[in-house]
Amino acid sequence: ELWGMTSGATAPARVRDIRPGPIGSFPTRFQEAGDKLFFTASESVYGPGELWVTDGTLANTHIVKDITAGAGSSAVGELAALGDRLVFRARDPDGGIDFDLYITDGTEAGTNVILDFDDGPDQAGPGGLTSFHGRVFYSVFDPMIGRELWATDGTAGGTGLVADCNPVGDSRPRSLGSLGDQLLVQATSGAGKRELWTIEGDT
To answer: Is the CB of residue 99 less than 8 Å from the CB of residue 124?
Structure first.
């Protein structure tokens, strides 16, 4: 279950018993955004792998949105902060196997799909979500160019391709990480070699 410990406390205290009983809710994938902490948890009514949020109090610890309604899993993953909001990957809201890109402010009404993607042959959806200079960068499959590096500012209009590192196939970007004013990413070039690429902060 979810526990917390305040500054000066001598022992942690349980924040909320999300799934009462012997099984537990297994909170994981913690990501801070603004004054909120987002995480995934399992619960008997909403199902496994749903998105929850807390400010460390019982009253403000709750599910954000049951994207796959009922006990089915939304398979929420790849959490990345975008200011005081959260960008994340989850199942298509229509109950398909595809994964879409979502943004939330921690409320059900403020949780929406940014863009609906074709998952492609690997059915992996957006991956490697990494916050950098006011955007979230990630890799995703596009039927025209394959799996390449994209970024979003949280809006559909501000979501698009950053670089087609491999014009003749998939570059399969992965291992994204920031270093000062640069974003580093491993990707396959047109020559078929896995190389280190950089993105400048104002790109």
So the answer is: yes
Residue pair 35/55 in contact (Cβ under 8 Å)? The answer is yes
> What's the whole-model pTM score?
0.89
Residue given tokens 């948890």 in the structure block: 41
Tell me the residue type at 149. Answer: L
Beta bridge partners of 47: 43
**114 touches 101 (CB < 8 A):** yes
Mean pLDDT by 10 residues, the chain (203 residues): 89 92 93 97 90 96 91 89 96 74 96 80 78 94 88 95 88 89 90 86 63
CA 21 to chain centre: 29
Kindly give the pairing relationship between strand 174-179 and strand 182-188.
Answer: antiparallel
The three-state secondary structure class of 18 is: coil
